[in-house]
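Components:
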Amino acid sequence: MEVKKFELNDIVEMKKQHPCGTNAWKIIRMGADIRIKCQGCGHSVMIPRREFEKKMKKVIKPVSEA
Ligand SMILES: [Zn+2]
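Structure:
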């Protein structure tokens, strides 16, 4: 199984886009729970890391390459 790598401040795409129509989220907190912020409307959600790994599709823009 593929291991997804992500870091704080990465911009990621989720499997389901936010109802506002944007599918770009910035990781703003890392821990047992991950907090991501919608780049379209600024709404933020906190989800358990395991769930995040399942729902995250890919890293659009790694902070290390920004
Ligand atoms: Zn949004």
